[in-house]
Amino acid sequence: MSASATVLAGGSRLTPGPRSRRRRISNALASFLIFLTFVVAIVPLVFLVVYVVQRGMEVFGWAFLTENPPFSERLDGGGMAPAVVGTLLITGAAALMAIPLGVLGGIYLNEYGGKSVLARVIRFLAEVMTGVPSIVMGIFIYTLVVLNTKELNGLAGALALACLMLPIVIRTTDQMLALVPRELREGSQALGSRRVRTIRTVVLPSAAPGIVSGALLAVARAAGETAPLLFVIGITSEPNTSLTNGPNTALSVQIFFNATRPFAPAQDRAWGAALTLILIVFVVTILARLVTAFFARRQAA
Amino acid sequence: MTTPGRDMETTVDLPTTVAPVVTLPDDTGAPHGGPDGIHVVVPHHGDEGTDEVPEEQRQIVFELRGLEVHYSGALAVHDVGLDIAANEITAFIGPSGCGKTTVLRTLNRMHDLTPGAVVAGSVRYHGEDLYGSKVDSAEVRRRIGMVFQKPNPFPKTIFDNVAYGAKLNGRKRSEMHDIVEHALTRAALWDEVKDKLKRSGLSLSGGQQQRLCIARALAVEPDVVLMDEPCSALDPIATARIEDLMEELKREFTIVIVTHNMQQAARVSDRTAFFTAEVDDHGRRVGRLVEYDVTEKLFTAPSDARTEGYITGRFG
C-alpha cells in the first residue's frame, strides 16, 4: 500500500523510500546479530576441540590405544587400552539393550498406543526420564544391581547407560513414526496387508533414517557419560573383555581419575583419553550421518 | 464367497421398499424411481452403448442397504442404498462433504482403520455380509483394492512397489517378475518404466506414480478397484491416460470411482450416484444419496431437482 503511495508521490519506482530505508537498516542489523550469535556459539567449541587435539596428540598414537597404563601413574608412556576396550564394550552392550527395546517401545507408542491413557503416561515418563541426571541412573543401578550382586562389573555400567539411552530412543522412534504419512499406511493396508506387516515393510523403512540417526546419537551421548559409570564398574588396569566377570573401566572414568592426579604424565594421559573419546563419538556421529544419507538416497533416488 | 450371480428379482424389489434413492420427501412424486429407475432399457445409448450390459444380465457385486456411517458418534452419511454391478464403472459424485468418499471406504472396510468410525446397515459383497463377524478385513482388501486421491507409492523401488501385494498373496519369488510386468502393462506404465524398475517409485512423475499405484493394486489380483478421486492431483494429460486405462480395466474388474469432476463421471462411468449434504435438525451436515441411475440418464434427464441443480452448476 504505502509503497505504491510513495511511488505516486513522485520520484523513481526503483530507489528506496524512507520506510524502505528503515527496513533495510533493520534487516542488516538483524543479519549481523544472527551472525554474531553464531560466532559466539561456535568459538568456544572450536577452541575446545583444538585444545583437546593439541594436548591429546602429545601422547596419542597406536601405542596409546593398545598399551596398558604404566605401573605407576607418575611414569610417562603407556596407554589407555583397558579404557578403550571398556568404553566400546559397555557402550556397545548398552546399545544392544536399549535400541531394540526403545524402538519397540516407540512402535508401541505411535502405532498401537496412540492417544490412549497408557501411551500418554509412557510418553510422559520417557520425557521425564530424559531429564533425569545421569548420576541418578548410576545410583539406581548401584542400589538395584551392584548392592545385590556385590560385584562391580561392566554389565552394571551397561545397564546404567541403557537406562539413559532408552528414553531417547523411545522418543525419537515415536516422533519419527509419527512423521510417516498416513497415506502410506492406508496404501499398504488397502492391499490387504495386516498391521504388523505394514509396520515392518512400509512404516519402519520409511522412518529408518530418523530412527537410526536418533539411536546413534544416543550411543554417542552414552559413550561420553562418566557419572553413572563411576561407582558401578570399578576400575582395572588391564583390558577386561568380560562384561560380567570383574571390574572394568571406561575412557570417561579414566579422564576423571587421571585429570585429578597431581602428576603431569597422568594428566597427559587424561588429555589423550579425552581425544580418544572425542574421536569415538565423532566416528559414531559420522556413521549416523552416512547411514541416514544411505537410507534417504535409496528411498528418493 | 457365494455365487456371484444375482437374479433380477432381488434387484427389482429393492428400490421400492428400501433404497432411499427414490423416496425422498421433496421429490415431485414423479414415478421415475422404483422399478423404472432400475429397469432402464437405455434407449438413448446409441453409439457408445456397446459395452452396456443389459439390465437382466447385470451381476451385482455390492448391495448397500440402509448404510450409515458415524464418526465419533456424529452421523456422516445417512441411509444409502444402491447396487453396484460387475464390470461397470460406477461413479460417486456430489459436493464436498456429501459423504461419497465415506461411502466408498465402506466397500473395503477402510473405516476399520479410522478410530471412532462406525458403519451401520448392510453392505453385501457377492451376497456375503462384508461386515459379518467372521469376515477378515485384510482378506476383504485383497479382493477389493483401492487407489487414493494422492499417489502414495511406497518409498521402495518400482519393482518392489508392484511386487508388494503379490508377495502378500504368497506368490513365489520366481513368478514375481512376470506378475510385475503384467500388472505394469495393464496399468499402461510398463513401457515407461521397464528400464528403471530398480529406481524408487518416488522418482516418477505424479501421473506415473498414480499408475504405479494402480499397478500395485492390480498385482494383488483384486475383483474390484475402488478409486478415490484418482485424478484430482493430476494434470489433464495424465488424467486422460487414467481414464482410458479405466475403460480397459473394466473388462476385468469392477470399478467404483469417486470424483469431483462431473465431466469425468460423465465420460467414464456407466452408472452415477449423486450424493449431497443436508443439514439435519441439529444443524449438522449429513450426506445422503439423492439419485442413482445410468450415467447418461442422470446427466441428461435427472429425476431429482437437486441433481439437476448440481449438474447444471446451480449449486454445489
Which terms summarize this structure?
heterodimer; A: 301 residues; mainly alpha; 12 helices; 76% helix; disordered N terminus; B: 316 residues; alpha/beta; ten-stranded mixed beta sheet; 23% strand
Summarize the structure.
By secondary structure, chain A is mainly α. Chain A has twelve helices and no strands.
Describe the structure.
- Chain A is 76% helix and 0% strand.
- Chain A has helices spanning 2-8, 18-57, 62-66, 81-113, 117-131, 134-149, 154-178, 182-190, 195-223, 227-230, 251-259, 264-300.
- The longest helix of chain A has 40 residues, at 18-57.
- Chain B is α/β, with parallel strands linked by helices and 316 residues long.
- In chain B, α5 crosses α6 (173-186) and α6 (173-186) crosses α8.
- Classes of the chains: A mainly alpha (301), B alpha/beta (316).
- At the A-B interface, α8, α9 and α12 of A face α4, α5 and α8 of B.
Order of helices and strands of chain B: HHEEEHEEHEHHHHEHEHEEHH
The major beta sheet of chain A can be summarized as: none
Which oligomeric state applies?
heterodimer
Low-pLDDT regions of chain B:
1-50
Helix content of chain B: 25-40%
Largest beta-sheet details of chain B = 10 strands, mixed
Beta strand % of chain A: under 5%
- For the secondary structure, the number of strands of chain A is 0
Q: How large a portion of the residues of chain B is in β-strands, by DSSP E?
A: 15-25%
Count, helices of chain B = 12
Low-confidence stretches of chain A: 1-7
Mean pLDDT of chain B: 81
The largest sheet of chain B has its strands arranged as 5-4-1-2-10-9-3-8-7-6
| Order of secondary-structure elements of chain A | HHHHHHHHHHHH
> Largest contact between protein chains?
A-B, 23 and 31 residues
- Return Rg of chain B in Å: 19 Å
The structure class of chain A reads mainly alpha
Through-space gap between termini of chain A? 46 Å
Label the overall shape of chain B: globular
